[in-house]
Amino acid sequence: MKSLTILGSTGSIGRNACRIVRRYPDRFRLAALCAGGNVKLLAEQVREFSPLLAVVRTKEAAGELSSLVNGSQTRVLWGPEGYAEAASLPQADMVVSAVVGAAGLLPTLAAIEAKKPVALANKETLVMAGEHVTAAARKAGVPLLPVDSEHSAIFQCLLGQDRRSLSRILLTASGGPFREVPAPDFCSITPERALVHPTWEMGKKITIDSATLMNKGLEVIEARWLFDVPVQNIQVLVHPQSIVHSMVEFSDGAVIAQMGNPDMIGAIAFALSFPQRLPGLAPGPDFPSIKSLTFFDPDLVKFPCLGLAISALSRGGTFPAALNAANEMAVAAFLECGLRFDRIAAVIEEVLARHESCTADLAAVIAADGWARSAAQEQIRRYIP
Q1: What is the pLDDT of residue 239?
Q2: How confident is the model at residue 358, as a pLDDT?
Q3: 356 exposed, middle or buried (CB, 10 Å; 0-12, 13-18, 19+)?
Q4: Pairing of strands 255-259, 244-250
Q5: Which pLDDT band, with edges at 50, 70 and 90, does 98 fall under?
Q6: Where are the alpha helices (DSSP H) in the chain?
Q7: In what order do the strands lie in the sheet with 166-173?
Q8: Nearby residues of 252 by Cβ (< 8 Å), 6 or more positions away
Q9: Exposure pattern of 132-145 as b/e (b: 16+ CB <10 Å)?
Q10: DSSP secondary-structure letter at 245?
Q11: Are the CB atoms for 290 and 307 separated by under 8 Å?
Q12: Which of 2, 189, 260, 376 qualifies as a FRET site for 93, CA 20 to 30 Å off?
C-alpha cells in the first residue's frame, strides 16, 4: 500500500490521481490533500478519502473547510507552512506535485528535502529552478517521476536504454486549437474559444498555454533538466492526433515512440505505480479508425511563445524564471482582464528584454519571479486602459 500526498488535488491532475486511488484502493491511500481555493471539492475529497491532513491557501478558506468537514479526523492547515508540512508528511510514501504555476516550487522542494519520491506534474518547478531542483533530488537520492504525458513518454522510451546513445528527444505537440487560424485573426480570439482544446482536457492555465504553444516551450525546458539533454537536442513536432506522446532518437538512427490515447490518466498512473503498470486502466488506440498520424514543424512566427521559451533556456540564469512569471501574469490578464490573445507573447517578450539575469540559485529565482510579475503587470497596464 502506497500513501500519497497530492499537492493540487482539486485540479485536473489531482482529480485524476484521486480517480486512480479510488479505482485501486488495495494499492493506494491518501495521506494528505492540498488545494488552493476550491474548498467545496476539497471537502468532498476529505469526506471520501479521510486523509490525515488537508491544506488550503488562506486562513479564511481553512475556516470554511473545517466547517464543511466538521467531525472529520483530518487536520486542516493553510498557507506555505501547511503545504510544506503536507509535502514532508512522514506517513506519505510519495508526493504528487500537481499545483499550477510557480506556487509548486517550494512545496516540491520540501518533498525532495524530506526524501520523498515526487510524481512531477508541476513543470514550472523545473522551468524556474531546474538545476537547483535536480541537484537537490540527486543529493536526497529520490526520483523525479514525470507526469506530463510527453515526459512520461520519453521516460518510458528510455527505460533500459544506454543514455550515452541518446541522440535527440522528439517532443510532440497537438498544436492547440489555433494551428490553422491565420495569425491576423489572433487579436480577436476570446478566452472562451481558447479554452476549447481539440484533443486534451486540462485546466484553464495550461489550456491557454497550449493555445499559445508556451506549454510546449515550458516542456522543452522541463525535458532539458529531467533528461539532462541540451536544448539543441530537443525538437518539437506538431502532431495533431496526439497519439504519439513523444519519441527518442538514438545514435544509430533508431526511433522509439510511446503511444496512447490523449488521456492523462495513463501517465499519472505510471508515475504512481512505477516500476509496475496498473492493469485495465484505459484502452489503447484504435489504429484503423485513426487512419494516419501526421507531424510537422511548429510555426515560430505565428506562435512566438515557443521561441521565447527556447531562447530563455538558451540564455540560462534566471531568464526561465522570468519567462514563467511573465507568462503566468499575461495568461491571467487574458482570462480575467481583457488582454488580447496576441499580446500574451508581447508582454513576455518585453519583460525578457528588460530582465537582467544572474546565477539561478533559489533566492535569485524567487527574486526574478517577483520582479518579472511586477514588470509584466506594468506592461499589461499599457495594453489595458
Answers
A1: 97
A2: 84
A3: exposed
A4: antiparallel
A5: very high
A6: 12-23, 39-49, 59-68, 79-87, 105-113, 123-140, 149-158, 191-194, 204-212, 214-227, 265-273, 287-290, 304-315, 319-336, 343-354, 362-383
A7: 234-238, 166-173, 244-250, 255-259
A8: 165
A9: bbbebbeebebebb
A10: E
A11: no
A12: 260
HEC letters along 257-326: EEECCCCCHHHHHHHHHCCCCCCCCCCCCCHHHHCCCCCECCCCCCCHHHHHHHHHHHHCCCHHHHHHHH
**Cell digits of residue 158:** 528510455
- Residue-wise pLDDT for 349-373, tens only, equals 999 999 998 887 999 999 999 999 9
Rg (Cα) of the chain, in Å, rounded?
A: 20
Q: How far apart are CA 344 and CA 347, in angstroms?
A: 5
Q: What are the Cα distances from residue 139, in Å, to 112, 144, 179, 198, 331?
A: 9, 12, 42, 41, 35
Instruction: Categorize the per-residue pLDDT at 331 as very low, low, confident or very high, splitting at 50, 70 and 90.
Output: very high
CA-CA distance, 18 to 4, in Å (whole number)?
A: 10
Residue from 120, 167, 173, 111 nearest 148 by CA? 120
- How many other C-beta atoms are found inside a 10 Å radius of the C-beta of residue 258? 22
Q: How confident is the model at residue 101 (pLDDT cuts 50, 70, 90)?
A: confident
Q: What is the pLDDT of residue 143?
A: 97
To 5 degrees, how large is the angle CA 30–CA 124–CA 363?
A: 105
* Torsion angles phi and psi, residue 178, rounded to 5: -120, 20
Tens of pLDDT, residues 180-207:
999 999 999 999 999 988 777 778 999 9
CA distance 180 to 167: 31
With cell 519567462, the residue in question is 323
pLDDT digits (tens, 9 = 90+) for 37-91: 899 999 999 999 999 999 999 999 999 999 999 888 999 999 999 999 999 999 9
- With CA atoms as reference, report the closest residue to 320 among 102, 83, 16, 22: 102
Nearest alpha carbon to residue 199 among 183, 185, 215: 215
pLDDT score recorded for residue 359: 84
Find cell 541522440 and name the residue.
167
Q: What is the pLDDT of residue 197?
A: 82
Q: Are 267 and 148 in contact (CB under 8 A)?
A: yes
